[in-house]
Amino acid sequence: MTIDFDKVWERRNTSSIKWDKYAKDVIPLWVADMDFAVAPAITDALAERIKHPVFGYTAASDHLHDLLIKHLRDLYSWEVEKEWIVWCPGVVAALAACVRAYATQGSGILTNPPIYHHFFQVHNPDAHRLIRTPLIRQGRRWTYDQALIRKSVDTDTSMFMLCSPHNPTGTLFDATELKEICATASDNGAIVVSDEIHCGLVLSEDRQHVPMALAAPEYSDSIVTLMSASKTFNLAGLNCSYAIISNPDLRQKYIDASAEVIPFIGTLAYTATEAAFEHAEPWRQGLLQYLRDNYAYLQDEFSAIDGMELQDLDATYLAWIDASALGLNDTAGFFEQHGVGFSAGEQFEQAHHLRLNFACPRSTLEQALQRIKSAVATLD
């Protein structure tokens, strides 16, 4: 299969949230939405499905279940039972369902900033306490502050909401780290909800994603794992996610909490997900190499930009940049004025940082870096 990730697809004026956000000439490197064409097998499957002109309510097929189970076995040696799988139209919706299902009135929900902004928004602030235990840097790597977590939670903590691989730092947590945090949750009677939507995007060639429930099998009955093909295979507009819940009581609570609140998954979203798992692995491998090369390019370029530290990452296509040395009050706004649209660090509760989406053709990155360098030069 020949995969041309260098091809530039014009996305302006297509109602793209990413590209139509800006009224002027701004290169958008913000939202986690790739600028690559999906695998041809996916578009072929969608074309075949729309030959049937009826698009009614649809359920996940037995074949899709089998493909997902095989996918998890092949990538992680994780044996998952069909009945553990609950389908959902998006991980954010699933996080909200977990809060409804497991967070009791007045209880605490732990999370670890800097983190994806929905982790701050899916709870009810009138009913729950959000316990923030920031990640810490050890060397050039972000990880959990395990001592702070143990100090911050108690038996009134109902949930840990975690993200692995981590967005936005790109950390790939190891089994020891994951098991320790699960042990702390268990000691306090808390459910662990693990958003693992970026698990198929590991860029470090000597590292592997470890699902939370596989890292800590002794605690698996108090773990809810949230995954999706959407980030890995660029299916953001065809939302189809799934929760893996081995504990039948927790699974039923999740299902009950979803009722009347979480909508059905669209027919074509199932079609695209099935095709991704069955046929798009060569595309994913090509994508991973292209992303590795893009990140290496960013490392070279940012090493020569004073005041901007491109931080190490193991996974995702979202680079985390410390720009605090530039001394700007509105860091993202400054670069937007110079034609580059980052995600602002404030969105993740870490000011003076920027998140850069490098899942785009190299030529787009090159144009963006020229503008970034020119912008920083104006500060001199």
Task: Give a description of the structure.
It is globular, with a radius of gyration of 21 Å. The strands form 4 sheets. A 7-stranded mixed β-sheet has the order 2-10-9-8-7-3-4, with helices on both faces. Strands 11-12-15-14 form a 4-stranded antiparallel β-sheet. A two-stranded parallel ribbon has the order 1-13. The protein has 11 helices and 15 strands. The model has no long low-confidence stretch (mean pLDDT 97). The chain is 35% helix and 15% strand. With 380 residues, the protein is α/β, with parallel strands linked by helices. It folds into 2 domains: 27-40 and 281-379, Aspartate Aminotransferase, domain 1; 55-278, 3-Layer(aba) Sandwich (Aspartate Aminotransferase, domain 2), CATH 3.40.640.10.
Overall pLDDT: 97
Q: How does CATH name the architecture of the largest domain? A: 3-Layer(aba) Sandwich
Extended strand count: 15
Look at the helices and sheets and give the structural class. Answer: alpha/beta
Strand content: 15-25%
Task: Describe the main β-sheet briefly.
Answer: 7 strands, mixed
Determine Rg (CA atoms, Å): 21 Å
Oligomeric composition of the shown chains: single chain
Task: Outline the fold blueprint.
Elements: E1 27-28, H1 40-49, H2 62-76, E2 85-88, H3 91-102, E3 108-111, E4 129-132, E5 136-138, E6 141-143, H4 146-152, E7 157-163, H5 175-187, E8 191-195, H6 212-215, E9 223-228, E10 241-244, H7 248-258, H8 267-279, H9 281-302, E11 309-310, E12 318-322, H10 331-337, E13 340-341, E14 343-344, E15 353-357, H11 362-379
Helix pairs in contact: 1-8, 2-8, 3-7
